[in-house]
From TrEMBL:
Gene3D superfamilies in UniProt: 3.90.1150.200
One Pfam family matching this protein: DUF1801
Name this polypeptide is given: YdhG-like domain-containing protein
The YdhG-like domain, residue ranges: 19-114
Organism: Mesorhizobium sangaii
InterPro entries noted in UniProt: YdhG-like
Length: 131
């Protein structure tokens, strides 16, 4: 089974608002860039990547959590991040039943994560070339 099929299966198994929310988040993320890939990690977590990890999606009992692996380094002018402020690297968006997530602002955040990943990739390549 491919990672995308595993994510399909996860969403289908979430028959309440969490499945709809995770499906909407997934659709929005994938609309940003055709080169975003879906992965299945940590025994059941959908992951979206492009030149490095962008975000992880998890359905919890009372929320859907979208964790950006380098969220602390990303601009968040629309204040989407509402969790994970205690850490130095990641930030998260906790979505509860009835919450609305603006697709445009999520897409902006995903683009910023891709830009961050690509800049880090270039830095690593430059450092390696200078050795």
């Amino acid at each position: 089974m491919t990672p995308s099929q595993q994510i399909d299966q996860l969403i289908a198994g979430l028959t309440d608002w969490r499945g709809k929310t995770l499906a909407s988040v997934r659709k929005t993320i994938l609309e940003v860039d055709a080169e975003i890939i879906e992965e299945w990690k940590w025994m059941g977590s959908p992951v979206w990547s492009r030149d490095g990890m962008i975000a992880v999606g998890n359905a919890h009992k009372d929320k859907v959590k979208l964790t950006f692996s380098h969220g602390a380094s990303l601009p968040d002018p629309d204040k989407l991040f509402n969790a994970g402020f205690g850490g130095k690297v990641w930030r998260a968006i906790d979505l509860f039943e009835g919450d609305e997530l603006d697709g445009r602002t999520l897409k902006d955040l995903v683009r910023a994560a891709i830009d961050y990943n690509q800049a880090k990739k270039k830095e690593k390549a430059l450092a390696k070339a200078q050795k």
